[in-house]
Amino acid sequence: MKVEAHPLTEFHGRDLADLCDAAEAAIQDGNGFGWLKPPARTEFERYWRGAVLVPRREVFVARIDGRISGSAQLVRPAPNKEAWRYNVEMDTHFVAPYARGHGLARALVDAVEAVARTEAFKVMLLSVRATQEAAITLYEGLGYVRYGTNPRYAYVDRAWIAGHFYYKDL
Fold first, then answer.
1. Which residue from 49, 78, 124, 167 puts its CA 20 to 30 A from 85's CA?
2. pTM of the complete model
């Protein structure tokens, strides 16, 4: 089994379909990245095509045997955020449930961090719902430090869910 994580600059073959399938599976499993239920496929495809094109945002994908099964995004600060020019954010990090347990989540974090380091960023930021226990274990195990909690981070099933905020010195 070949596992890899890398930036995605354009779609080839089944890439877009695989990415939509993986994200949909993660959302249905309750590990979405903002969505509570998967959007229509055309909306999903527009989202991913757009994410690849957004300036200061870079989409990374994780593959098992060539099939995209997870993703994360590196979000660079806007030019007018000069005071935060050394901070970068990891966003939209997920692995499809059918691909978990093979190191993809960590491979994505490692790939995002490696690019951030080469671009001279000093701190990686991220946030995660308090219910995402596997992600929290991963982040804390990789040296991320929780610096705050928002008790009203997300509204799911008519209830507030807390969210945690993390940083890591690169």
1. 49
2. 0.95
Per DSSP, 98 falls in state G
pLDDT at 9: 93
* Burial class of 55 by CB neighbour count within 10 A (0 to 12, 13 to 18, 19+): exposed
Which amino acid, one-letter code, is at 13?
G
In contact, 154 and 163? CB cutoff 8 Å: yes
pLDDT at position 71 is 97
CB neighbours of residue 142 within 10 Å: 15
pLDDT at 42: 96
Query: H/E element holding 47?
Result: helix 41-53
Low-confidence ranges of the chain (pLDDT < 50): none
**Helix 15-28 × helix 41-53 angle, to 10°:** 110
Q: What are phi and psi of 148, to 5 degrees?
A: -175, 160
Cα–Cα distance measured from residue 92 to residue 59, given in angstroms and rounded to the nearest whole number:
9
